[in-house]
């Protein structure tokens, strides 16, 4: 059964009498117990997607479509009920840990607040729980460090603290938005290992947002490739990485490959202007395979192999290439 | 001085040492050694990679070279002349020769200036050009970084990260420097466009009389393309240096190997390579004297590693390594 079912999700922002189309009809489902990655370049809508799940959106946003979590529609849920879902059932680890923490409160206090909000614990009990989860995420001398303020934490530690905050209520779905960005490789791996460990212990589902395919290959079993607010390709990680069925995925993968070629591969051009909804395929302007149809008609997702979908007019060709 | 003799180093750093003191809990002052006897050389027109994790001292080194920070020990020799801690008056003529590109292109541009204004501002360091020549040069520079003259009138917010980083390189090139220190120029860019910057540097390397580059990064993937020689730095000291081929195909130090593992795609076992579960940051820089400083993070550590300070020694012609077990670890 799918834990999370998204259908026809559209997200628009009104900015200065213009409309920015952040998500343009996203359909996807995330199975319970899976570890799913959402990948794509900056501006592809990865973060917009997760923020709209929890309705953590600014007032100028308009959301349409359906987001069902355990069969319950989240988009029409009233604020009080939604607050019970946020943090307790769906927890989020935000990008830029330092910025996600309140600089004016000790880290332990911020974690304890989450406990008190969701479980009705008393102050002392919640504090103990905060220290316990901080220790569980590998922070040394957690009892002392809990009293520290965020600026006294290093980047890796702040990320650990955010993970602690996310796991304190034992959520069923953990969303990690670029948890390793801004950290160096050694710390990145510790943080990823910790996320995996936490997910395994809680028996939770992981939705990992990242632009780093190396991270995906190691951590996730399912992959969702996004571009310009659309899903380009979905499938099992091994399938997608070994036999990409979308030119965008293939181009992205090429950027990560270690070759002995003289020049480094890159995707020419830039992501399309989201103020206009493109008529055809959103990747047409940068794609090496573009033909007339790509500019005229938006490709529908086709199943190139069981469970492996790609939104490309030439999906089968690309997959067989 | 015959510093310009063939093969002579353009820039030589000898035993650079820099300490910062930071206030810990209570009154005790604690020192962090950011650079500990770092030596490196850069020849004319050469690109040298400097790779290390955050807190390893790589940016500090750049800041010291550009006289933004003062070393506590060691020398920085540019064209045979000691430039460490020169007074402003003597430093000023050198400033145009030594340029820097910062990690975040957005914050390194004045948001109120167009790209042309920003470049003209940089060209103020070149007194021999008149205004018309400067404007001409702005056009040439934009062409050189493959942006084109239409970008001259744009403000930073109107450009993508990759375009802006190219503009930042144009700005660094403006006063015709001998040396550009690139401080993680691709770290804030998507993997899909890092190639634009890397390939641009490759093109600039081809140019006769072009500057030398020190390319600082924590991501070895990008160095594979641009660096001729690579220095691996951690906790303020160099643990290995060698040619690109030596570092990529025959790395000898366990730390270099861990970095290489970490940057390759789809290696399950790479976690172990990075070692300890504890926090790997500057806290380790103050670990007790007298042993290998990577002791706690090294899977190959032996009892001797705890006792003996490791020194940088030549293991192959042109390759240096700071590990006594380097030969065994093949």
Which features characterize this protein?
heterodimer, A: 321 residues, 4-stranded antiparallel β-sheet, globular, B: 330 residues, alpha/beta, Rossmann fold, disordered N terminus
Instruction: Profile the largest sheet of chain A.
Output: 8 strands, mixed
Model regions low in confidence, pLDDT < 50 over at least 5 residues of chain B? 1-6, 266-287
User: Would you list the SSEs of chain B in sequence order as H and E?
Assistant: EEEHEEHEHHHEHEHEEHHHHEE
Number of strands of chain A: 12
Low-confidence stretches of chain A: none
Reading the helices and strands of chain A in chain order gives: EEEHEEHEHHHHHEHEHEEHHHEEH
Q: Give the helix proportion of chain A (percent range).
A: 25-40%
CATH architecture of chain B: 3-Layer(aba) Sandwich
The geometry of chain B reads as globular
The average pLDDT of chain B is: 83
Structural class of chain B: alpha/beta
Oligomeric state: heterodimer
Count of separate DSSP helical elements of chain A = 13
CATH homology group of chain B: P-loop containing nucleotide triphosphate hydrolases
Mind describing the biggest β-sheet of chain B? 8 strands, mixed
Strand order of the largest sheet of chain B: 6-7-8-3-9-10-12-11
**End-to-end C-alpha gap of chain A:** 33 Å
**What is the CA-based Rg of chain A, rounded?**
20 Å
Query: Percent of residues of chain B in helical segments?
Result: 25-40%
User: Strand portion of chain A, in percent?
Assistant: 25-35%
Topology:
The complex is a heterodimer of chains A (321) and B (330).
Chain A: E1 2-15, E2 18-31, E3 35-39, H1 46-53, E4 61-69, E5 72-73, H2 79-85, E6 90-93, H3 97-100, H4 107-119, H5 123-136, H6 142-145, H7 155-167, E7 173-177, H8 185-202, E8 205-210, H9 213-219, E9 222-227, E10 230-236, H10 237-242, H11 247-256, H12 292-296, E11 301-305, E12 308-311, H13 315-320
Chain B: E1 9-23, E2 29-43, E3 47-51, H1 58-65, E4 73-78, E5 81-82, H2 88-95, E6 98-101, H3 115-123, H4 131-144, H5 161-173, E7 179-183, H6 191-206, E8 212-217, H7 220-226, E9 229-234, E10 237-243, H8 244-249, H9 254-262, H10 270-273, H11 303-307, E11 313-316, E12 319-321
Parallel strand pairs in B: 3-8, 3-9, 6-7, 7-8
Antiparallel strand pairs in B: 1-2, 1-4, 4-5, 9-10, 10-12, 11-12
Helix pairs in contact in B: 3-5, 4-5
